[in-house]
Amino acid sequence: MREMAPICFKVPRLIEETVRVEYWDLPFFYNSVHYHEECQLTYILEGRGMILVGDHLEDFQEGDLLLIGKNTPHALVHSKEYYEGNSSLHARAISVFFSRDTFHQVFNQIPETSKIEEFLDQTQFGIHLKQNESKRIGDDIKQMVKLRQVPRIILFMQVLDRISRNSNYHYISSSLPQMIGKEDSLKLQKVFNFITRNFDKRITLEEVAGLINLTPTAFCRFFKLRTNKTFSQFLIEVRISQACKMLSNGNFNVTETFFSCGYNNSSNFHRHFRQHTGLTPSEYKDRAMVPLRV
User: Fold this and answer.
1) Distance (Å, rounded) from C-alpha 71 to C-alpha 67?
2) Is 176 a domain residue?
3) pLDDT for 53-90, tens place per residue?
4) Please, which residues have CB within 8 angstroms of residue 92's CB and are 6 or more apart in sequence?
5) Would residue 62 count as lying in a domain?
6) Which domain holds residue 227?
7) Does residue 294 sit within a domain?
8) DSSP designation for 82
9) How many domains, the chain?
10) I need a surface site. Which of 22, 70, 88, 196 has the fewest CB within 10 A?
């Protein structure tokens, strides 16, 4: 295999997201060799291929669980049939992204989590748990998609605990990855900071591209390659995340919320909200107001 320079990838994890959960339903997984600051836990729902971690390739298939460490170069590569335009093959997965540094601070204060802390230190080699061992953990990861805030974090810590206590996982790579610079990451961080401060205003592509001295066309290619999202998708995610926060607070009605999140069109707001949450804004607000049972 020819040597490839890993791409510095930026996971669009929002400020208020300690744990980011993404459901992927794609023709094929992102197959460029890349790395990011977050650890990545991926449960394969559909699809097969090979995973590259560091210097090693091995097969993955439906039901497998993959855990990739912070700044570890990796890629999920399919056979050529997946990349044909008329292919009926599909790739689905749930991926969980989390900051190793954040959980290191938490686990260092809790003696009972010392085994998880030691386990996470080994994720830079890539960890693979085969389908016959991952079913229960996979069910918990599916449940995480439906949860938000503290319940999601609690379940995630239970997932990490179960994986760390499973004796049947194995390491994908035998050597530590070689680190490279973070210039692209700094550029993306500048864009992310701008969006999180200005999502309530009208934002143009030209304005954002100018932040890092690119043309709009070049910026779109740059952003898509390093986040696997279009810029408009990311902006929508930020706005809908803020809308969820405002509706959960209880002090804002739906109209106040969509104006405060940068929307001037009610139909677009409702459509984007349902796409990202599966609920209408009113349904989301009603559910958020129901007290948790203990």
Assistant:
1) 12
2) no
3) 876 878 899 999 999 999 998 999 887 788 888 888 99
4) 23, 24, 25, 26, 44, 45, 46, 47
5) yes
6) 183-288
7) no
8) G
9) 2
10) 88
pLDDT, tens digit, 9 for 90 and up, residues 147-202: 988 999 999 999 999 999 999 999 998 877 655 456 776 788 788 788 888 999 99
Q: What is the CATH number of the domain that holds 39?
A: 2.60.120.280
Tokens (6 digits) for 116: 């998880």
Token pair listed for 161:
């605990």
| 131/228 same-domain check | no
Q: What's the CATH number where 246 sits? A: 1.10.10.60
Of the candidates 278, 284, 271, the residue with the CA atom closest to the CA atom of residue 244: 284
Angle between helices 281-288 and 231-249 (to 10 degrees): 40
In terms of phi and psi (left: phi > 0; alpha: psi -120 to 50; beta: otherwise), the region of 82 is alpha
The full DSSP string for 111-177 is GGGHHHHHHHTTGGG-EEE-HHHHHHHHHHHHHHTT--HHHHHHHHHHHHHHHHH-TT-EES-SSPP
DSSP 84: S
